[in-house]
């Protein structure tokens, strides 16, 4: 089951709980069976409306689109610094901006296949190269930084060998496809070793970008435990003060040079100018009729049930109004 909520789930609860409580009170005070069933219907309408706003769906759908013969590999920093709170004037976590930019990349290359590599102490292939964008979105929703207690320092190049292996696999496939790499991170090297080089991937890369997140002033990072405890976690401390994560643009420029792509510092309000797909994949190879993964939307079924319950509620209200008017007319005639 996949959810793509229109509103934050917390806001949905704020909306739903009072309505259900009031309806439950009305249900408890009703004695007539018909009236009790009406309150049950009202509770059902509230639940159905909340379901619609959650936009549930099932993976496995598909949509016809342009096939660009391009494979895009996303390399994402998921260390504690990825949630450093220095994005924008309201100090949002960097990961919020990263996820938004990844969505922009997906929108920029419709029909492309995508793969997701995340890294902290180790690199992990979260999503092997696929045209199923629903799987990618689900993986992005689940991107969280490593547990603070397990953090032992991270090399910003730890994903380099895995990236090269993934690019080699794509190159050795039977179909010739363009290859793009996008690296999302802050360039902060916290391991004692020298960062691994991405140079071996340059000859396998046809385009992409290195995108940097963070500020010179740095941002505080909250602890992560891997559990849901319902409250705001305390900040990570160093020598009795909140630890700060500071962007290292020199390291990010080095990674861009090794990959042979452009580097850009991301800033709030600045539109992301993404490169064109490789010319070898758009000249005579793009075709219509391809399919990419989408969710099978379930909310229309909830909407249909809601419409039916609303129709019953309106019919009951109209019948009650007619009875009241007839009663009023009868009372006038008696006087």
TrEMBL record:
Could you tell me which Gene3D superfamilies the record lists for this protein?
A: von Willebrand factor, type A domain
> Pfam families from the xrefs?
VWA_2 (PF13519)
Instruction: Alphabetically list the UniProt keywords.
Output: Membrane, Transmembrane, Transmembrane helix
Signal peptide stretch: none
Q: Which InterPro entries match?
A: VWF_A (IPR002035), vWFA_dom_sf (IPR036465)
- Residue spans making up a coiled coil are none
Please give the superkingdom of this protein's source: Bacteria
Start and end of every VWFA domain? Answer: 71-259
Report the transmembrane regions from the record. Answer: 6-27, 39-58
Its protein name is VWA domain-containing protein
- Record organism: Mycetocola lacteus
